[in-house]
Amino acid sequence: MRHGGRWSQGAVKVAGVLLLAALSACGSAGTGQGGGRAQVGAGGGRAAPSTPAPEPTRIPDLGDRMHGRIPAASRQVLAVYGEGEDSAEATAVLYTRRGRVWERVRGWPAHNGKKGWTADHRLGDNRSPVGVFTLTAAGGVLDDPGTRLPYTQSEDYAAPRWWDRSHWHDFDYVIAIDYNRVAGTPPDDPTKPLGEEKGGGIWLHLDHGDGTSACVSLSKDAMEYLLRTLDPDRYPVVVMGDRAALKA
Questions:
Q1: Which residue among 8, 53, 174, 199 is least packed, with the fewest CB closer than 10 Å?
Q2: Under DSSP, is residue 17 helix (H, G, I), strand (E, B) or coil?
């Protein structure tokens, strides 16, 4: 700002920075001309005024709030669109960002918590948490199918045999959803930073045909594809919730 006809030191610095930025944007060593005239480039031509870089395209059916929670570095997003707040039916779609464009890669039917979705998940509520969560570790009963994610193979993932037979293969493959857990640790790590009452152990896992306790379930083919495609160097995340919550 000017004080008594003089510029403050801070304003002079800001003006200097803006001038350097303008010169850099134009790719010219020429001197800026006053009166709103274009700068003259080193080759004698007039450089076009710089324009802001275009915003990335949007992932379909995500509102500003959800889009704003996707890390800037992320280049892979698994969007899980729940059919309704109290529905266990969902559709999962994998998107990859190339440059400034989010491209749909593949989609699958899915299931979520048997009672639907919640923005305040609690242990035993049978609802999946709404939000954006990183995907940093995988595991399961079966051998690593060729994933880039850290993978822990163990028979300990096997579902108890007193469960209904339709659930016995639920955890043949799992990908940990980083809700109330330490990112990067094996999926069965019991640490819950938010406390036991906020639940945890929420995974992507194999589908058994209906709703889950809070996880998201997909076909074996879908899980194998995700395990082979998700890449830690592309900072994959899952964006999940009922359609109304995702659009908010």
A1: 53
A2: helix
